[in-house]
UniProtKB/TrEMBL annotation, chains A, B:
Protein name: Bis(5'-adenosyl)-triphosphatase
Organism: Cladophialophora yegresii CBS 114405
Region of interest called Disordered, as start-end residue ranges on this chain: 149-195
Gene3D superfamilies assigned to the protein according to its UniProt record, in alphabetical order: HIT-like
Residues with site note (Important for induction of apoptosis): 125
Listed CDD domains: FHIT
Top EC group: hydrolase
Transmembrane segments: none
Histidine triad motif (motif): residue ranges: 102-106
Amino acid sequence: MPPLQLPPNLKFGPFSVTSQVFHLSPSRLSFGLVNLKPLLPGHILVCPVRSVPRLSQLSATETADLFNTVRHVSRTLQRVYRATSFNFAVQDGVDAGQSVPHVHVHVIPRQNGDYDDRGGGDRIYDAMDGEEGDIGKAFLEMQRMRDQRLKDGTRDFAGGPDSDRKARSEEEMKREAEWLRSEIEKDRVEGEGEA
Amino acid sequence: MPPLQLPPNLKFGPFSVTSQVFHLSPSRLSFGLVNLKPLLPGHILVCPVRSVPRLSQLSATETADLFNTVRHVSRTLQRVYRATSFNFAVQDGVDAGQSVPHVHVHVIPRQNGDYDDRGGGDRIYDAMDGEEGDIGKAFLEMQRMRDQRLKDGTRDFAGGPDSDRKARSEEEMKREAEWLRSEIEKDRVEGEGEA
């Protein structure tokens, strides 16, 4: 597949995102990105292209597209991650636990008992709000690794074992994003075949 | 205000709802209802009028209306409950904690430190998934109280102190719904004044 034609200077809050993006809605108002630290396999984020912190700042058209994009990508997530349920959650503002000031819908595929080893299904929310799910911190770390590699004048995995690990993780995300995109494409083609 | 003209036989899952409903969207595709057991003041639910369990079963138009209704009623909730943030959450399917098989968006107004006395902000999700937030159970209890009153041949608060308490709670919900509706109406009129 040719690379996704993303809007110029696409950002998630203050962070540049390109290789993590696996989907852009046909109206180009919403995009999906894979997570740096998924709480469960297939945990992704869906965001409006226009970077605003609060849902109330979106237009009716942007809101409609955002949640229809959630619905759309969930169909593929359900299939490829064998999900039986989903959690959809928005932390709308700092006092609701938002760590990146850009509207984002958490989409978390669920299966029976998937979180039992971590204290039961409802603990996923603790994880989302806690250190483990701190998206802002994870993005900051990634940014720091990128800056370090630029400073070192290397394009590949450089630095100590630690930065090496982070860099691989970025590669992993890119692979996951490409794979998800191709799976969504399959559903689209099949869906059109049905019509 | 005249009573809301609700669609005939409006239900939330298997439960009849009338007096708890505080909002019907202009397209009549979505409605808002006050909660039997709000986890925080102003915790309400927004649902599609068509009773289906999963978000994937809604049309694009229904999905758009559902989340624009969330956005719409949140404006009033923010004002009247002095909210600085919101949690929006959908438990989409049993394995995500859904207890009533009818799509519902939890809308929870938040303030800084509002859940500190119960272990911190992220505990709200535990509550949502646990006994305290079991909407299905709460509705079943209410239904049982209604049936009992019908069986007893009484229309008012009858039975022991326990059923009395539950009945008052239904009255409370009705008052809250009427109040919220009038506050949303104020925002609508003011909003139109601006245009």
